Amino acid sequence: MKNKRFLFLGLICFLLMGSCASITEYPVTRKVSQIDLLHGVEVEDPYRWLEDFTSEEVEAWVGLQNNLSQRYLTKNKYRKKIKENLESIWVSNSKSIPQIRGSNIFYFFNEGSWQQSKLLKQECDTCLSEVVIDPNKFSTDGTVSLSNLSISPNGKFIAYSISDGGSDWKTWKVLEVDSNQVLEDTIKWTKFSSGSWESDSSGFYYQKYPEPKDVALSEINRSPKLYFHKIGTSQEEDLLVYDQPEKPNWSWNIDVSEDGKYRILYVGEGTDESNRLYIQFDKDHSFIPVIAELEATYIFLGNKGSDLWFFTNKNAPNGKIVKLKINKNESFLWEDVINEITLPISGFSLINNKFVIEYLKDSQSKVSFFNLEGEFISGLDLPSKGSVSGFNGKISDRYTYFSFTNYVTPTKIYKMDMETLIFEEYWKESLPNYNSSDFFTELRFFDSKDGTKIPLHVTYKKDIQIKADTPVLLYGYGGFNISILPSFSKTYLAWMNQGGVVAVANLRGGSEYGDAWHEAGMLLNKQNVFDDFAYAAKFLHSKNIGSSKSTVIVGRSNGGLLVGTTMLQNPSLFAVTIPQVGVMDMLRFSKFTIGWAWESDYGSVDDREEFFNLFAYSPYHNIEAGVCYPPTLITTASRDDRVVPSHSFKFAARLQELQGCDNPVLLRVETRAGHGSGTPRNKRIEEIADIYGYALSVIKEGVD
Q1: Is 75 a residue whose pLDDT tops 60?
Q2: I need a labelling partner for 622 at 20 to 30 A (CA). Which of 59, 91, 356, 647 fits?
């Protein structure tokens, strides 16, 4: 189906009757003659001009696409009902896991109606709370958000970063807690940076990229530098701590030991979690290499004197805890403390002279406590199966907090006495008219294409009858060593309240089963991830849990790539496909912002074998003319500078051009938003209502 201009008759039909027939006409998308020769292959790229996504021409094209999609998305009867349900769900309070710093307890809180959560503090668990930072005052529409946050060890200062319209570019400010005054300190042009405080709270370390010379939202980000900012000074006075201009792909992070004796420098490259490790004994000395090559991951937990503890996966794909002994002559001696077991380590901390180790067992948490010698003390008796997070604190802290959740249990926060390991409920999320006993969730396993067993969490309301026409929302990610763990979701609840089933697959490429699981879904093994996702749908259908006429697949970012590729490889398997902020052009992802860093997971076009692997599944390059693809809603955001929106633009244009039937291909572009983090409440509700309403209208009424 070729692009055509909207006919005047069609416009009159829209105005008079609301809708006419299926979408057979799209806004004109011009094509260019662009052919790249890659490893002897001529690769057409007719929509290359859409990569200039901040230009007036592209913005005008986006406006036409948005007008079309909004007319179509808002006409169905399901959207209003879903939005009303989301509004009723979102009135509940939410609270983050508290952090103890100095004499105060800090946490984020939202009473339900705020666009952004506020940072609060209190002197004790029962004391009155006080607002410390209110991001709702940053802008009138809630699109300027609080991003990273770092509280000084003594609790007197807070370094926090601000994102404008969802961009990954951050500006750091400093707040003096006692006076509640924002200081003049301002740090600009940072990305992917934490604020690591010195032990004496005199200042913090951060990673800064060169100021963009052209378009800040698309320019490649390389050659960062590590700086130290002293409180009360200007950024121009900041101390350059570390850089390697001849290594533009290297990046930095730093930890400071509680006693201030050591600074631990991590040197990474791309998204590979392996890192080089350097230690500085005092500020007057240079960093000494401990691990000079990218051989494994090393993460500092804490120290006592010259004994430093680290998490590592060196010769331990599931992870272990080791001790680094620094001798008087500044030589190093490694010793295993907590050995690797069959379960992968997903979290770790050192509190009150005890190791808290979080393991994953079939994507669900299992927590164990050990002494400093690595001897097992006890396990954590959880209320049910699900996900645990938290356990923040220092080696000398007595108390800590952790949370528990699963697909039917809203978040509960507990306070633990680390001396006795006794814990009690501190706070729980309470939703109006919600009872977890009304819902059912179970963990199932299915065989993927190659016989590998894949976990699949299936959740729904007990009172619905599961059958072939039941709407199923199937979600996956499968990449970058990221685990998708059970957690309560208000958006999933809205889907289940409409009689739908939510299914979440723990695909290869994540870390649910350690490094081996990640490696089985990366680089030349990436096709395993798409097979896992397709076979999840086939398994559900074989059990009469939905069908190809009622299953919706959705995924974000790397998950958007997952949806795009899987729908092209299995065009008749799904009723609706929704790739969100996806990486859709696998031959040019490295050309924008931080995309080059993903080569560690995807591979490089410069490598012949990896090129052919990428070319084989790249969504933009694998759309076949005349094939009937499912109704598709592609979503992105105009200020996404992580996965730039041109990925979605080009994919939408080509799919609209080559679609072999009347199934709609819609593009929804959010304004004043980025990759997702910091998106205000109202925008989130609008997007979910659009997506779910569209999906249900197709499933229940078909493509009209």
Answers
A1: yes
A2: 59
Q: Is the pTM of the predicted complex or chain greater than 0.85?
A: yes
Catalytic residue among 96, 387, 675, 697: 675
Within 8 A by CB and 6+ apart from 451, the residues are: none
| CB neighbourhood size of 7 (10 A) | 11
Question: What does the pLDDT look like over 276-315, one tens digit per residue?
Answer: 999 998 777 889 999 999 999 999 999 999 999 999 999 9
Render pLDDT for 218-230 as a digit per residue (tens, 0 to 9).
889 999 999 999 9
3-class secondary structure for 178-193? Answer: CCCEEEEEEEEEECCC
161 is catalytic: no
Q: Is 626 left (phi over 0), alpha (psi -120 to 50) or beta?
A: left
Helix-then-strand count for the chain, H and E: 11, 39
Dist. CA 17–CA 11, nearest whole Å: 10
Topology annotation, domain 439-701: Rossmann fold (3.40.50)
DSSP secondary structure of 208-227:
EPPPPSS-TTTS-----EEE
The span from the CA of 318 to the CA of 360, in Å, is: 10
| Whether 621 is catalytic | no
Rounded to an integer, the average pLDDT of 636-641 is: 91
Q: Is 651 helix (H, G, I), strand (E, B) or coil?
A: helix
| Total number of residues shown for the chain | 704
